[in-house]
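Sample intake sheet
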Amino acid sequence: MVGTSQFVRMFDSVEGVSMSMHLCFMAFLTFMAMIALNAHRAHATRATIQILAIYLVGFGAIGPCTALLAKHLLTGFYIWTRSDTITMLCAAVGSVLIVGTLGKRYSIHDPIVRGLLATCSKALPQLLMAWKMWRDGGEGYAAVAIWTAHITTLIRLGQVILSRERGGKWTRSHMGLFIGEGTNELSWTLVTIAWLFGGSHI
């Protein structure tokens, strides 16, 4: 529903929409799905199945929008901007720093490392996305997509807490998921503020 609404909206307007952000979101979903799969394999519960399913559904929602943006890029309806380049560079530099700093001690397969990489792929670019929306406005984003992102993120955070192993012990998979989703929600709050008050809304 949300993915469909956003997909339809982008046929008419891409104001405030960032292709680089969509690409980073796909990377975020990949890292988080791998952590969720690891958590499910270690201790399978209904909650771990739900979390994994949500990330897989996310691919179905974001994938078509990303493909549409690619089409718009080829036709000139969407223009790759300096902000897109900066976003991709920031995500890449952040990821290299994470791997370079922690790579000697932890494997890239470690859930916390993946959670930090997810942060570089989502939260960091969303800070730049908020700046772009504040400057240019965000008419290209449907309201239902903005608010539903908060709801689904908070639901996933709740599921991470509920899916802890008995005894209240946090596994590295739980911590990786919490890091990724926690920073995602904080940065998306800034995006929402920019969407509400930035650009043409001022």
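Comment: The chain has one domain: 2-201. The chain has a mean pLDDT of 86.
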